[in-house]
Amino acid sequence: MTGFINILLTFTVLFSGISSQIDFILNPAKYNCITLDTSSLPSPVTEPEYDGFIQLSEVNMHYLVFGSGKKPLILIHGNGGSVNSLKEAAQYLANDYTVYLPESRCHGKSSDPGEISYALMAKDLKEFIDKLGLVKPFIMGHSDGGINAIQFAADYPDVPGAIISCGANSHPKTFKIYFPLGVAIKNIFSPDKLNDMMLTLPDFTPDYLAKIRCPSYIVSGQFDIMWISDTVYLHENIKGSDMAIIKGADHSSYMSHDGKQAYVLASQWLDAHGE
């Protein structure tokens, strides 16, 4: 019986996903389809103000800081990423914010305590914020970093000033089938707890998402690895959130592959909605 229910759910998600992609083509304004104009940008800040570590309860966390003396903005990279993933975005955003670029547990130069989950990474981020004394920081994450932003805002709703979640999924079932299939095959030959996490987490229910109280921006690419219907689901279940679909973008083209677009995306929305 459980197997039948899982198959039914899979086909329901598939049908909903394909329908949303078709509807997006026919009615792009319904999904707030946008393009990001990078024709006028400030010069990027080339060197970080700080490159070092902070000791948390379970993790010795490596991080960079770009800019100083302005509202804090924390950028969170995706699964398997590092400070280099969003470094270009940080260099542009440092014109408007003091940008903190941490490496999650089990990533980059940060230590590996043996366990990883979105809840544990949210706990690490809370400790990071507390230790640095950051007040109402903006949090912008890409991919797993986008999931982390949502998890953090739900687990610690009074802490963030606003979140921008880019390329996040609510559940592994909402991926387009090619992506988890590729991860699962890779995991057979090279088992990795980072892959295990992507294949089993998150599980963002409406009740869980309802815990989020800060201004929230839910973003994905037109050709992202999850269905547009899942971006709509996150938006509809995070009260008062905004949503955008980046026209022509894939999962990373407007974030880790283009810091200029990430700057425009963040600065325009935060100027209007950030606390």
How would you explain this protein's 3D organization?
The structure is a single chain. With 275 residues, this protein is α/β, with parallel strands linked by helices. The protein has a single domain, classed as Rossmann fold, CATH 3.40.50.1820. The protein has 9 helices and 9 strands. Strands 1-9-8-7-6-4-5-3-2 form a 9-stranded mixed β-sheet, sandwiched between helices. Helix 2 crosses helix 9 (259-273), helix 3 packs across helix 4 (144-155) and helix 5 (178-189) packs antiparallel against helix 6 (193-200). It is globular, with a radius of gyration of 18 Å. It starts with a helix and ends with a helix. The mean pLDDT is 95.
Sequence-ordered SSE layout with sheet pairings:
Elements: H1 2-26, E1 33-34, E2 50-55, E3 60-66, E4 72-76, H2 87-93, E5 98-102, H3 118-132, E6 138-142, H4 144-155, E7 162-166, H5 178-189, H6 193-200, H7 206-209, E8 216-221, H8 228-237, E9 242-246, H9 259-273
Parallel strand pairs: 1-9, 4-5, 4-6, 6-7, 7-8, 8-9
Antiparallel strand pairs: 2-3, 3-5
Helix pairs in contact: 2-9, 3-4, 5-6
